[in-house]
Write a structure and sequence with these properties.
The chain is an alpha/beta fold and 449 residues long. It is built from eleven helices and 18 strands.
Length: 449
């Protein structure tokens, strides 16, 4: 009987544990005094912090506030509050230099955590390191050597029953002067043979790239050039296996660090030369109307800055969304660098090469190409973008000459994956520079929703 009694007691206790309701979770509320979260430097930025439990003001607990330079290693401030001494509390931050301050608020007794960013004198944020002294001369030499290649572009017709029947499709291959020897893209040309066509160019975001026409910006009245950054034929049957195998050979098993030990071997040298050559090909086609547009996000946004800097005023308009490849040296001054953070990676792999690496990667940094853009350009930027930190993208925006028509969409809550709204607005920007017959309002609202 004693054994049965003990088992009965344990069962009842266990049932009680199972049936017990979880303790109410506290709620952490942070409200900046300025809803747009942008301030002049040397001004006080106040954040009201409130902790509640079941809707009632909490009377105990500890709140910490850590402030960093856009998520980098530089700590701008730290504060701690005992809620038994007051709740809500007002945290005041004063920053005396241009930056984005990442404010990380945490309730220590729980998993409650809020993050927000405050911008201070953001129009004065500059690239962390200067551009290489021979930037223009070196690239001019690369382009001159590339121009010596006779008939650099070849077209291979491709087809798929799932694609629109209003286009002819081609895999376009550009020969290059690099060890890789080539670069690829997918070209869509309207089948109607009357008149001439404009062209929308877009470069892939991270990953294997285009093996078929771009699904978002194909349109019946324009050519679409979907550019890849890889030297591997995307239409080959084993392309995905090739892509994976080549990535395995790279530092950190990622192509964006491929050949990073020298500017001549760096993966993006070949990609830039290839993309430029394919744009040159489009501009020389007899059916090209002269209307050239660019749109791209992330890595494609970084290439928008690069191609915009190369072709200067050749684009009617450029739209870059959450652009990567900006401010590679950001980590040297305590803030985060731009994707893919090659300097940070290089320092871990080759710490004695730090100074040389900062110069080397400068040839591929979007902030340096931005200085040369003359075409109208829109930046779509998320303040909470952890992949492409806002400091670097703002540094690129600020680097675009004041004489260039430049515009910005800055979303205080946007992250790198924020979807249809900025994409729709970015495409709408391009339409401001298109002829009336090319306007397609609201089309991409539904694509991205």
């Amino acid at each position: 009987m004693k054994t049965k009694t003990i088992l009965a007691v344990l069962a009842a206790a266990l049932a009680g544990v199972i049936e017990a309701k979880p303790l109410p979770q506290p709620e952490l509320i942070t409200v900046p005094e300025r809803s747009w979260q942008i301030y002049p430097s040397e001004s006080n930025a106040n954040i009201r912090i409130t902790v509640t439990t079941k809707g009632a003001i909490a009377t105990n607990g500890t709140v910490t506030v850590k402030v960093s330079n856009d998520g980098g290693k530089e700590v701008l401030d730290f504060a701690k509050y005992d809620l038994s001494k007051g709740n809500p509390v007002t945290y005041t931050l004063k920053v005396e230099k241009p930056c984005f301050a990442l404010v990380d608020v945490a309730l220590q007794e729980s998993r409650c955590r809020n993050r927000l960013k405050l911008g201070f004198d953001i129009e004065k944020i500059k690239p962390a390191v200067p551009e290489p002294e021979d930037f223009d001369a070196w690239w001019a030499e690369q382009f001159a050597e590339q121009a010596k290649i006779a008939d650099p572009v070849t077209l291979k017709p491709i087809s798929n029953k799932a694609w629109s029947d209003k286009y002819d499709y081609f895999c376009v291959r550009a020969k290059t002067i690099t060890a890789d020897g080539c670069s690829y893209g997918i070209l869509s040309v309207p089948k109607k043979k009357t008149g001439k066509f404009g062209c929308i160019a877009i470069t892939q975001c991270v990953g294997p790239g285009y093996s078929e026409p771009d699904p978002n910006y194909a349109r019946e009245d324009m050519m679409t050039l979907a550019l890849n950054v890889h030297p591997w034929d995307p239409t080959a049957p084993d392309y995905q296996e090739v892509y994976k195998r080549e990535n395995e050979k790279c530092p950190k098993k990622a192509y964006m660090f491929r050949g990073m030990e020298s500017r001549e071997n760096y993966h993006y040298r070949n990609a830039i030369l290839g993309c430029k050559t394919l744009i040159d090909y489009i501009r020389a086609r007899p059916d090209f109307s002269g209307e050239l547009f660019y749109i791209g996000g992330s890595q494609g946004g970084g290439f928008g800055l690069i191609l915009g800097g190369i072709f200067k005023d050749a684009f009617r308009a450029i739209s870059v969304q959450m652009p990567a490849m900006c401010d590679f040296g950001g980590y040297t001054i305590g803030r985060r660098s731009g994707w893919p953070y090659p300097g940070d990676v290089n320092d871990k792999l080759h710490p004695d090469d730090r100074a040389a690496a900062l110069v080397r990667f400068g040839y591929f940094d979007g902030v340096n190409w931005a200085k040369r853009i003359k075409s109208p350009i829109l930046f779509t930027i998320g303040m909470m973008d952890d992949c492409c930190p806002v400091s670097g993208t703002i540094a690129a925006y600020n680097s675009v000459p004041r004489s260039t028509p430049k515009f910005i969409q800055l979303g205080k809550d946007w992250t790198h994956s924020t979807g249809w709204l900025p994409a729709h607005m970015s495409y709408g920007f391009l339409q401001n520079f298109m002829a009336p017959e090319h306007l397609t309002p609201y089309r991409y609202w539904w694509t991205w929703k």
